Amino acid sequence: MTQPNRDWVTSCCRHHLHSGIEVMVTRFAPAQTDLIEIETADMQRAEAIGLPMATAVLALGAVVAATLPITVTAAGIAVAVGALFGLTPFCPSIRWCSRLPP
User: Fold this and answer.
1) Contact 15, 25 (CB under 8 A)
2) Fewest CB within 10 A of the end CB: N or C in the chain?
3) Over the stretch 10-69, which tens digit does the pLDDT of each residue have?
4) Residues 6+ apart with CB under 8 A from 21
5) Rounded distance, CA 83 to CA 25, Å?
């Protein structure tokens, strides 16, 4: 900033100079640079939190997707075997092994 402009800002904002507030004149480029720095820091913080969370969700989803068919199959087999054992006393013609005595 040139000296005449600085003097004009100082004279216009003299009452703010003693209150601890710093008065500065800026244009688009410095403001844009500050915004880019803030956005970059925010994005790095968001990625540091978001990427591990997304990885954990995907890994957990993969584990659930892999174990679900096995679990459903095991439950189906258990129900079928339980039904057979439950119905066996009512159906004496069913034999598990041909060597069992009548």
Assistant:
1) no
2) C
3) 666 665 556 666 666 667 777 788 888 899 999 999 999 999 999 999 999 999 999 999
4) none
5) 84
